Amino acid sequence: MASFHARSNSLPSRQHPLTSQIEENLNRLRSSQSASTSSSLGQQLIGLQDLNEYVDILLQLPLNQQALAQEEQRKCVEELLDGSLVLLDVCNIAKDALLQTKEFTQELQSILRRRRGVEGLANEVRKYLTSRKAVKKAICKALKNLKHFENKQSTYSCEVTSILREVEAVTCSVLESLLSFVSGPASKSKLSRLNPVSKLMHHKKVASEEDEENTNEIVNVEASLRSFVKSENIKHVENLQHELQNSESCIQDLEEGLESLFRRMIKARVTVLNILNC
């Protein structure tokens, strides 16, 4: 899970009521980071949507526009704009991962309805698992980019840029949680390559992660499919249709939340660009 590199959990003293609402939303999102179920992630995406709406309204205030337009703030603002591009790119990667997983999920549901038999299903299951490998590879790269991005983030003294910086940090954390949810837990082969200290840290997380995995609809489907591939016993897929439906519904909700967040992030970015170009 991402850590916040903002200089403080409390924003500077502010006069406008919007800043209090933004701080309240930021604190609510920070406190929700302990859980990474599809339901909690959906709520976090909604929280980010609301947060970006408040930020866009804040950016419309003349005093804030004047502050951002000052020459001494230009470097800070340009860094924030670069950061928004990174986060938008991560959003696109997450959307692609969800879409690809959903398409294969729907295909498996269609095959189960047509009852093509174990052999036909086994072939499609292998295609699904292969597609999941590609999805996980793309997500792994995106997570590394996010970590690199977090390590480069700066802190700002200007009130409005400080707000934007904290919004950027919490957005980064939520997107990291989302990507990790879609990807699922690290494989045993990856775990075997960890050093002893990393292994110890990993095992300390297992107990809480097991509860989250039990409510990870995407991981549940993948586990059932892997069991089926090993045995090719139809008994392993007796409940698969139900799990696939749950997974598709979960993916659909996350897709909608992510798309809505994506649009709001673009809107806020355009507002900042317009301020600079005035």
Beta-strand content: under 5%
How many individual domains? 1
Q: Which class of secondary structure composition applies to the elements?
A: mainly alpha
Order of helices and strands: HHHHHHHHHH
Query: Averaging pLDDT over every residue, what do you get?
Result: 82
- How many helices? 10
Q: Quick one: overall form?
A: elongated
Number of strands: 0
Q: Into which percent range does the helicity of residues fall?
A: over 70%
Sheet of most strands: none
Low-confidence stretches: 1-14, 187-194, 196-210
**What's the gyration radius in Å?**
21 Å
CA(first)-CA(last) distance: 39 Å
Structure description:
One of its GO terms (biological process) is shoot system development. Pfam families: BPS1. This protein has 278 residues and is an all-alpha fold. It has one domain (17-277). 80% of the residues lie in helices and 0% in strands. The chain has helices at residues 17-31, 38-59, 62-69, 74-114, 118-152, 159-183, 188-192, 196-214, 217-231, 240-277. Helix 1 runs antiparallel to helix 2 (38-59), helix 1 runs parallel beside helix 6 and helix 2 (38-59) runs parallel beside helix 10 (240-277). The model is unreliable at 1-14, 187-194 and 196-210 (pLDDT under 50).
